[in-house]
């Protein structure tokens, strides 16, 4: 499932902050807009266990 909300792909170069849109192009600069959703969870991720352990250690 993909998000309908998109963000300007080159917002770091053209804008002070992220510009969000529902269209395929940025309304401010006319550049391409990309999906703003994070990557989906992958149960076959070989390093996921290590990343989660690091997060737990950082919280403590």
TrEMBL record:
<dbReference type="GO" id="GO:1990904">
    <property type="term" value="C:ribonucleoprotein complex"/>
</dbReference>
<keyword id="KW-0690">Ribosome biogenesis</keyword>
<dbReference type="InterPro" id="IPR036756">
    <property type="entry name" value="H/ACA_rnp_Nop10_sf"/>
</dbReference>
<dbReference type="GO" id="GO:0006364">
    <property type="term" value="P:rRNA processing"/>
</dbReference>
<keyword id="KW-0687">Ribonucleoprotein</keyword>
<dbReference type="InterPro" id="IPR007264">
    <property type="entry name" value="H/ACA_rnp_Nop10"/>
</dbReference>
<protein>
    <recommendedName>
        <fullName>Ribosome biogenesis protein Nop10</fullName>
    </recommendedName>
</protein>
<keyword id="KW-0698">rRNA processing</keyword>
<comment type="function">
    <text>Involved in ribosome biogenesis; more specifically in 18S rRNA pseudouridylation and in cleavage of pre-rRNA.</text>
</comment>
<comment type="similarity">
    <text>Belongs to the NOP10 family.</text>
</comment>
<dbReference type="Pfam" id="PF04135">
    <property type="entry name" value="Nop10p"/>
</dbReference>
<dbReference type="InterPro" id="IPR023532">
    <property type="entry name" value="Nop10_arc-typ"/>
</dbReference>
